[in-house]
Amino acid sequence: MTEHHQISITALDYKADRKKAKHPLKIMDVSLRDGHQSLFATRGRTEDMIPVAEMMDQVGFWAVETWGGATFDTMHRFLNEDPWERIRTLKRYFKKTPFSMLLRGQNLVGYRNYADDLAKAFVERAAANGMDIFRTFDALNDYRNFETVVPAIKASGKHFQGCICYSMTEPRLGGDVYNLEYFVKKARELEAMGADSICIKDMAGLIAPYDAYAVIKAIKEAVKPPVHLHSHFTSGLAAMTHLKAAEAGVDIIDTCLSPYAYRTSHPAVEPMVMALLGTNRDTGFDIALLARINEKLEKEVMPKYRHLLADNQMSIIDINVLLHQTPGGMLSNLVNQLKEMDALDKINEVYKELPRVRKELGQIPLVTPTSQIVGIQTVNNVLFDTAEERYKMITAQVKDLCYGLYGKTAVPIDPQVQTKALKGYPRGEEPITCRPAEILEPELEKARKEIGNLAADLDDLILYALFPVTGRKFLSWKYGKEQPPAEVQAKTLEEALAEQALMAKARAGQLVEKPGVKEAPVKGEGLRTFNVFVDDDYFEVGVEEVGGAPVVTRVQPTATKAPGPKTPAKTIVPPPPAPPKATAAKATAAPEPAKTAAAKPKAEAAAAADAAGTPIKAPMPGMIINFEKQVGDAVKEGETVVILEAMKMENALTAPVSGVIKAINFRSGDSVPKNAVLCVIG
Ligand code: MN
Fold first, then answer.
1. Nearest to 544 by CA among 562, 530, 565, 533
2. Is 366 a residue whose pLDDT tops 50?
3. H or E element: which one contains 394?
4. How many angstroms is it from 219 CA to the middle of ligand 1?
5. What CATH homologous superfamily does 22-305 map to?
6. Which among 80, 91, 611, 649 is least surrounded, fewest beta carbons within 10 Å?
7. pLDDT tens-digit series, residues 433-467
8. Where are the beta strands (DSSP E) in 86-220?
9. How are beta strands 133-136 and 227-231 bridged, if at all?
């Protein structure tokens, strides 16, 4: 079992003598799923996979990962593509290489546990549409969440790959929870469930080379199924880790074609092919074929995605993982979320609060969806908690986690947090200990009634059942009931290239002068800047919070006209955005002279509007899931009125006062900015 842990050079003249290796390292290509999910926000379109599909089929990959994870969500939501159709289409080009998908256990390809009937139907349909290998994981490594999907995978005659999510609480392997014994125990559990292979899923690029060596060697010695390593490059460790894994006898690793590789994605395949050339673990791959694939990708495909590449830093690695043991992708999500909420200055508090929240929530691994659950709750705590009260705004998902709906956490959840989260929880205040899906009512028939004829077949119905709001929207595009918006349309290569040329011109200053952006003065730590427009006058107002109360530090009238181009003619400047009412009111409340009097009527108008009722405002940008109340309904203080989805987490917004719903300003599915008045209680 361990005879190949030593890598030996078997041939020195590679060209003349490249015999088949004794234990070739098998490789799964993940470019078409995790590659673009990691680098391009999962925006890869099927039409951009086809040009290289037949060549990829010739490489000799153990499998290609083509589906699962975020693809299902992103495709129907942002690309106006039917996710089921992708498998069928690609299957026409990949004639011999098996397809692999990432399956989030009972979460399927979504963010919560689904009922057994839906889980079973999903696996059966995925298999029928062409999926061969089901890489299955559970965010909590609670394999009771595999109990429904595994028999469905097996009954379909497909390969069940069981995952162990790699997690840590210390800078390296060890500690009380995620130590060597833990990983071996999990591997044994998977073997007992009938795993055809076992994957160490290092979704955050945490695993260090020598830890991978130790873990793989120990697992290889303990169980029979082949061992597969999935490690992201994020922290810069993964390429070294791959080599040590090969030495430890790993059977399969994941790589990307080089245009889809590195950064938060995976190491590239080509260097690995060269590193092992002529050894007993030679992949046998033709490097020239790989080069031809890459050339085609670089010329015909990548220009369409370049703009999605995060290029705001020089480094292609993110050492946050090494510092915080936290997935890089999760941290960049947090940064984006804070940015949207104008609270980027709180990032250090978030770093500090995160391990604490994670521990209180049961020291769970950080992987979709738990990384979002912990991340968003941490941001909520940092933004909304007060000195007297923690966990002021608890997301619906944290409540579900506390109830036991995701499964068993690695260590028990903090009882105080749990009690608070479950106060008034509709399923009950006492957490469950059984397999979570046991308490879920079947969903398919209910979904069928809701969506009716808009779902033409079972695949449509499953899509709707998994994603009710965006799924319905997609189906109405698919069947011509609604026109898909421009932003979901595909971009041609010509358009992409023209756009890039335009951007380059703009950056070189040949296109348009940047509107009058002023040099910022020295700012304090907590400074926040607001633009205030009063008729034709424009003010930039710096607001800095001191001891909790907003204090205006600076009110500075700028150019009388709204900022405009310095050069006349040919330049087009968009009109300044309308002033958000709340901001204008806040600014005029400041005891500062210049021009504030002019804004008074508007402040009064805003106050008058408030007097007509109490608004519920969006505390963060997001999408309305639904209103639990209608206009005219009576509500009690603390009752849930609207569910707002932000960063894929649902937040229940409650009535701040008792009264009657006077107005509802949005519909289910609408995107709303921060502070949008969602409804008014009078
Ligand atoms: Mn991954």
1. 530
2. yes
3. none
4. 20
5. Aldolase class I (3.20.20.70)
6. 611
7. 999 999 999 999 999 999 999 999 999 999 999 99
8. 99-103, 133-136, 159-165, 197-202
9. unpaired
Distance CA 190, CA 25 (A): 22
Ligand 1 geometric centre to CA of 250 (Å): 17
The secondary structure element, H or E, covering residue 75 is helix 71-78
Pairing of strands 227-231, 252-255: parallel
CA distances from 135 to 42, 63, 131, 234, 244 (A): 18, 11, 11, 21, 23
**CATH number of this structure's domain 326-433:** 1.10.472
Query: Quick check: 554 pLDDT over 80?
Result: no
Do residues 588 and 653 lie in contact, with contact meaning Cβ atoms separated by under 8 Å?
no
Q: Could you give the C-alpha distances from 140 to 79, 173, 233, 462, in angstroms and in order?
A: 30, 18, 23, 24
CB atoms within 10 A of CB 286: 14
Q: What span, in angstroms and rounded, lies between the C-alpha atoms of 283 and 26?
A: 6
For 261-297, what is each residue's pLDDT tens digit? Answer: 999 899 999 999 999 998 999 999 999 999 999 999 9
Closest CA to 443 of 94, 106, 26: 106
Cβ 557 vs Cβ 595: under 8 Å: yes
Return the closest-CA partner of residue 220 out of 188, 268, 194.
188
Report how far ligand 1's centroid is from the alpha carbon of 34 (Å): 6
CA angle, corner 607, sides to 605 and 613, nearest 5? Answer: 115
Cα–ligand 1 centroid distance for 165 (angstroms): 10
Would the CATH topology of 326-433 be identical to that of 597-681? Answer: no
User: 385: CA distance to ligand 1 center in Å?
Assistant: 33
Q: How far apart are CA 252 and CA 78, in angstroms?
A: 32
445 CA distance to ligand 1 centroid (A)?
33
Where are the domains positioned within the chain?
22-305, 326-433, 490-512+526-570, 597-681
What's the gap in Å between 654 CA and the centre of ligand 1?
Answer: 36
Lookup result for tokens 């690609």: 90
